[in-house]
Amino acid sequence: MSTSRFTTDDAAWVRFGDAGVYIGNVLHEKNSTSMGAGFACFLPGAAMTWTPSYDEVIVVRSGEFTVDSQDGSTTAGPGELVWVRASVPVTFRAGRETTWIAFATYPIWDSTPESKAQAQALQPVDGPPAD
User: What is a single Pfam family found in this protein's UniProt entry (predicted)?
Assistant: First the structure.
């Protein structure tokens, strides 16, 4: 099939430590050879420091989302997009309310050796917290 549709119910969910960050992968090594994609839920004020070894596009679905880097901060709201370039340490953080994002990565974010090493902080969960 040339197209596929995914919802948060299709995602394989993990939690980033105790930070209040939930990541739901829908495109990953098991079903894609070229790119990664999914959803994430950040509880109010939740933050996640990470060094991506891939390029990432983040679309804010609800709430306010900020990406801090050595170059400063970029904040986006619903319907806005943030591009994060590979190899730059960043902190992803939510504003004062629960924030939902969708993301796409190239290559698949959890397929790189650097990401696999950082992924020790990820714990499988049944899904994000209920709203």
Answer: EutQ
